[in-house]
Amino acid sequence: MPSDLDYRSPSTVDHALALMSEAPGGAFLLGGTDLLPQMRTGRRAPSVLVDLKRIAELREIRETADGGLSIGAAVPLADVETHPLVRARYALLAECVSTVGAWPLRQRATLAGNICNASPAADTAVALLAFDAVVGAVSSEGRRTLPMSRFFTGPGRTALRPGELVTDVVLPATSRGFAGSYLRLSRRKGMDLATVGVLVGRSDGELPPRYRIALAAVAPTPIRAVAAEELLEARGPKAAAEAAELAMDACAPITDLRGSAEYRREMVGVLVRRGVAMLERKARP
Ligand SMILES: Cc1cc2nc3c(=O)[nH]c(=O)nc-3n(C[C@H](O)[C@H](O)[C@H](O)COP(=O)(O)OP(=O)(O)OC[C@H]3O[C@@H](n4cnc5c(N)ncnc54)[C@H](O)[C@@H]3O)c2cc1C
């Protein structure tokens, strides 16, 4: 690690933005579970770390006026996973969060850090895409919101502007109560990124139900398989095999040390079919 690294720990968002504008080569720091390993290997060399963990407004989970849920950027994943409103209304997010590393890691790592790092394998991103979450961001130019569907622009890249800070991630009220599963293959349990991740969800108690299929580690960014969702909405679970084919078509996987492109694409098909079958089993009295 560089010995001349500057570390700052502001207590307000305005101060954090001011510090970053003074040091354009700086980086925001949350849990540091992505950033610090990247600095150790020389992939990142920020001139200053602006630690956001002391900023009270970023540490809250609160209901929004229209019945959604805002999760502050500095809330550790462990608190997201165990929060009663997350578990009751957005159980699939709690399930995805619980697959990130191991419990000690999740006491430091955050949701905002997971999406800002923009790994194609980001496990929380599939639930945030499925729930049409919205990212709150602020810069010296003011506040804005970005839909998750437009947040990722490539591996390690996001739609954030230089110096722009994520304040929170908002789950809309309209995405409450999806049932389903996050089916994830990795080389070992805990402490390994997903080789393939497939979320299959269905809105509970709605007729006709809405389906959600979101995929990790099989494209340059986490993605939704929208054509597969629409087919299931039109034809129901009997179209699972065709929906699986459409989800496979939506992928653009690579071959790396975790698996080949062919294996990843095949597994997307298998896991979509399995996810739909699991929904059916749960739905039976
Ligand atoms: C052992 C180990 C196992 C892991 N396993 C998994 C896994 O199974 N699944 C998975 O998805 N990930 C995994 N990860 C990756 C990592 O833990 C997650 O991506 C984590 O959620 C990152 O959050 P953080 O708070 O630590 O982010 P940080 O490392 O603090 O930040 C990540 C990036 O976001 C930027 N940033 C931070 N805050 C903001 C902000 N408010 N606004 C704008 N930019 C910001 C930082 O500058 C940095 O570029 C693992 C990491 C380790 C070390």
Looking at the structure, what is the overall shape? globular
Number of strands: 14
The kinds of small molecule bound in this structure are: flavin-adenine dinucleotide
Residue share in β-strands: 15-25%
| CATH structural fold name of the largest domain | Uridine Diphospho-n-acetylenolpyruvylglucosamine Reductase, domain 3
**Rg (C-alpha, Å):** 19 Å
The number of helices is 11
Structural class: alpha+beta
State the name of the first-level CATH class of the largest domain. Answer: Alpha Beta
Provide the low-confidence segments as ranges. Answer: none
Residues in helix, %: 25-40%
Mean pLDDT: 96
Question: How does this model look, in words?
Answer:
- This protein has 285 residues and is an alpha+beta fold.
- It has 3 domains: 6-51, Uridine Diphospho-n-acetylenolpyruvylglucosamine Reductase, domain 2; 56-174, Uridine Diphospho-n-acetylenolpyruvylglucosamine Reductase, domain 3, CATH 3.30.465.10; 177-283, Enolase-like, domain 1, CATH 3.30.390.
- The protein contains 11 helices and 14 strands.
- The chain has a 5-stranded antiparallel beta sheet with strand order 4-5-10-6-7, covered by helices on one side. Strands 11-12-13-14 form a 4-stranded antiparallel beta sheet, with helices on both faces. It has a 3-stranded parallel beta sheet with strand order 1-3-2, covered by helices on one side.
- The longest helix is centred in the C-terminal third of the chain and has 23 residues, at 261-283.
- The chain starts with 5 loop residues before the first strand and ends with a helix.
- The structure holds flavin-adenine dinucleotide.
